[in-house]
Amino acid sequence: MWVYEKRLQYPIKIKNPNPALAKIIMTQYGGPHGKRVSNRPVVLL
Predict the structure, then answer these.
(1) Which residues of 1-13 are buried (b: 16+ CB within 10 A; e: fewer)?
(2) Fewest C-beta in 10 Å: which of 20, 21, 33, 41?
(3) pTM over 0.70
(4) Does 6 fall in a domain?
(5) Domain region containing 29
């Protein structure tokens, strides 16, 4: 029997979460809207 435990390779600590940046990153990886959003250029301010 196998027990799968999903962990990161290195521990990370997020001090200041940024939901707007997370949304941009997820759409670039094919997030909620897939290819329709990922073809747009990303402007980071």
Answers:
(1) eeeeeeeeeeeee
(2) 41
(3) no
(4) no
(5) 13-39
